[in-house]
Amino acid sequence: KLHSDLDKGVGTVKYTLSGDGAGTVFTIDETTGDIHAIRSLDREEKPFYTLRAQAVDVDTKKPLEPESEFIIKVQDINDNEPKFLDGPYVASVPEMSPVGAYVLQVKATDADDPTYGNSARVVYSILQGQPYFSIDPKTGVIRTALPNMDREVKEQYQVLIQAKDMGGQLGGLAGTTTVNITLTDVNDNPPRFPKSIFHLKVPETSHVGSAIGRIRAVDPDFGKNAEIEYNIVPGDGGNLFDITTDEYTQEGVIKLKKPLDFETKKAYTFKVEASNLHLDHRFHSVGPFKDTATVKINVLDMDEPPVFSKPMYTMEVYEDTPVGTIIGAVTAQDLDAGSSSVRYFMDWKNDVDSYFTIDATEGTIATNELLDRESTAQYNLSIIASKVSNPLLTSKVNVIINVLDVNEFPPEISVPYETSVCENAKPGQVIQIITATDKDLSPAGQRFSFKLSSEASNKPNFTVHDYRNNTAGIETQRNGYSRRQQELYFLPVVIEDSSYPVQSSTNTLTIRVCRCDSDGTIQSCNVEAIFLPVGLSTGALIAILLCIVILLVIVVLYVALRRQKKKDTLMTSKEDIRDNVIHYDDEGGGEEDTQAFDIGALRNPKVIEDNKIRRDIKPDTLRFTRHRPPAEDNTDIRDFINQRLQENDVDPSAPPYDSLATYAYEGNGSVAESLSSIDSLTTEADQDYDYLSDWGPRFKILADMFGEESYNPDKVT
């Protein structure tokens, strides 16, 4: 309520209201000053309003007092329930956690005024989820209420949480939310085999590395806590097998490490241990986290192929051994209970296998052709053995046959077969070291001996020095050699081996005489070099030839450029002549025709002879004698020519030789006479155009025009 001291209650004072909500939320009685709310107020929407009031004289409309400001505060009531803005919640806690283990903290928000009464004071409680969990009434922290909750018993829990204002008193508003709690796994359970003995049956033909069976231990844990490692306990029979873990099924896969043989051993027994990979030290007191089971494997008898006595056979035979000679034998037998006979045959791969044969019953291998070690030193055969009772059951073995060497080839000189000697060589100088090769398979310690042939021993040119290490040196015996006397020497060298029987050969070594410098460096070995001037080396000759070639190339290029330039000049001259021919539609050369067209034919010869002036000098005003007075009809042309002539004479930019005075010589009085029909002495009437009618229909219109029209001199302009 508003009231002014000047208000006597007689209705002379009027109250006005302005500010927040004036007229929309609040209204004022203009006479009494009472303020009323005209709609419901919500503190959560707007907690206070700032208004201004004033008392005004009813008659004068003037304010009786200054405007005053006041605040209307909305008093809160409990009209909002607590709300969980983040709900519903999802939480997890490890299984087997102790009582009071932290799970989650929930929070409810109340929009009421927390400073006024208990409208915003929230208390938390559990409506559903006891006795497993508890909640702090003030903070909303959820904790475990029971010890040793087992995930394998129950994994999921749904807890209903209530938040109530007014401190939880009767009449307070409440809100709820759901908390889904999951127990996470810990490794609190060891793996266990569902049975103590596993029986497996395995065929004896199973391949090494193949899986022959599976066993499984059960672990109720989850994820990595359920990962199991299997191991074979060392003991009887376990060395033939191996076990691995299938990472997807957590099964133990038993694999074969060695081949099985029913005839050797029919059964195997061993133990397998299953243990967890990831252990939790908190549960060690529960017991060992592993379990053991027994595996019994029975080997099944299978019909097997024959078995060779060796995995591979190696045999030797001398080359050139007579055909049919037995060089060895292979043996295979059937190890099954009902032993069967075995047959042998060769696995033909190529034509090389035809050099040998095998006896189908005994398995003996013999030569079928003569062998040559130098052609093929080793043969690799495949022998197949099959059971007579079941030919489909076969086995294969490799037989390597080495061909032994017989000394049948003499040794030879290794390359090079040609060497050189300097003209200035001294006696006893070694010019070449030679070695020998033998096509035969040389045994260890094979020795070669070198010597000159008997016919060369008497010649004092060169000798052979055997170093006794399968090499020899070629030495000079003369003091200098001359290419002019003899350029080539042929030295026969005899080489013998130390095998039985002894083989020898005579090899001819070619020795070329060369020109060398004082250091023994070869400069030239060619015959042509003998006749070259002394001191002129091969490099100098090459340089001279290169210079001559370069000079020839320069001369050819110069001549070609001169011809090209001459051709271009000729073409340019022709183009200039062609381009300077200027066409005009009227008589005369025109003003721009200064070089290409000579208009001297239009000049007066007498005047030219009397006035010989240079065309490149500005001419003086020339006066020419007219042979006849100009006709009246030529006045306009003469004025035009004189005007243009005057303009060009005074124009400094005009060429000095461009004179239009030359046009004055055209017309009457000129040697060339008139080039125009203007003022012509002849008229069209003097012309006879009747011949146009004789030219045919194409000239009919032209003949009609000139044949019928009469000439009128007054019409000429």
From TrEMBL:
<dbReference type="GO" id="GO:0000902">
    <property type="term" value="P:cell morphogenesis"/>
</dbReference>
<feature type="domain" description="Cadherin">
    <location>
        <begin position="413"/>
        <end position="531"/>
    </location>
</feature>
<protein>
    <recommendedName>
        <fullName>Cadherin-12</fullName>
    </recommendedName>
</protein>
<feature type="domain" description="Cadherin">
    <location>
        <begin position="309"/>
        <end position="413"/>
    </location>
</feature>
<feature type="domain" description="Cadherin">
    <location>
        <begin position="194"/>
        <end position="308"/>
    </location>
</feature>
<keyword id="KW-0732">Signal</keyword>
<keyword id="KW-0325">Glycoprotein</keyword>
<feature type="domain" description="Cadherin">
    <location>
        <begin position="4"/>
        <end position="84"/>
    </location>
</feature>
<keyword id="KW-0479">Metal-binding</keyword>
<keyword id="KW-0597">Phosphoprotein</keyword>
<dbReference type="GO" id="GO:0016342">
    <property type="term" value="C:catenin complex"/>
</dbReference>
<dbReference type="GO" id="GO:0008013">
    <property type="term" value="F:beta-catenin binding"/>
</dbReference>
<dbReference type="GO" id="GO:0016477">
    <property type="term" value="P:cell migration"/>
</dbReference>
<dbReference type="InterPro" id="IPR027397">
    <property type="entry name" value="Catenin-bd_sf"/>
</dbReference>
<keyword id="KW-0106">Calcium</keyword>
<dbReference type="GO" id="GO:0005912">
    <property type="term" value="C:adherens junction"/>
</dbReference>
<dbReference type="InterPro" id="IPR015919">
    <property type="entry name" value="Cadherin-like_sf"/>
</dbReference>
<dbReference type="Pfam" id="PF00028">
    <property type="entry name" value="Cadherin"/>
</dbReference>
<dbReference type="GO" id="GO:0045296">
    <property type="term" value="F:cadherin binding"/>
</dbReference>
<keyword id="KW-0130">Cell adhesion</keyword>
<dbReference type="GO" id="GO:0005509">
    <property type="term" value="F:calcium ion binding"/>
</dbReference>
<dbReference type="GO" id="GO:0044331">
    <property type="term" value="P:cell-cell adhesion mediated by cadherin"/>
</dbReference>
<dbReference type="GO" id="GO:0007156">
    <property type="term" value="P:homophilic cell adhesion via plasma membrane adhesion molecules"/>
</dbReference>
<feature type="transmembrane region" description="Helical">
    <location>
        <begin position="530"/>
        <end position="561"/>
    </location>
</feature>
<keyword id="KW-0165">Cleavage on pair of basic residues</keyword>
<dbReference type="GO" id="GO:0034332">
    <property type="term" value="P:adherens junction organization"/>
</dbReference>
<feature type="domain" description="Cadherin">
    <location>
        <begin position="85"/>
        <end position="193"/>
    </location>
</feature>
<keyword id="KW-0472">Membrane</keyword>
<dbReference type="InterPro" id="IPR020894">
    <property type="entry name" value="Cadherin_CS"/>
</dbReference>
<keyword id="KW-1133">Transmembrane helix</keyword>
<keyword id="KW-0812">Transmembrane</keyword>
<comment type="function">
    <text>Cadherins are calcium-dependent cell adhesion proteins. They preferentially interact with themselves in a homophilic manner in connecting cells; cadherins may thus contribute to the sorting of heterogeneous cell types.</text>
</comment>
<keyword id="KW-1003">Cell membrane</keyword>
<dbReference type="InterPro" id="IPR000233">
    <property type="entry name" value="Cadherin_Y-type_LIR"/>
</dbReference>
<dbReference type="GO" id="GO:0007043">
    <property type="term" value="P:cell-cell junction assembly"/>
</dbReference>
<dbReference type="InterPro" id="IPR039808">
    <property type="entry name" value="Cadherin"/>
</dbReference>
<dbReference type="Pfam" id="PF01049">
    <property type="entry name" value="CADH_Y-type_LIR"/>
</dbReference>
<keyword id="KW-0677">Repeat</keyword>
<dbReference type="GO" id="GO:0016339">
    <property type="term" value="P:calcium-dependent cell-cell adhesion via plasma membrane cell adhesion molecules"/>
</dbReference>
<dbReference type="InterPro" id="IPR002126">
    <property type="entry name" value="Cadherin-like_dom"/>
</dbReference>
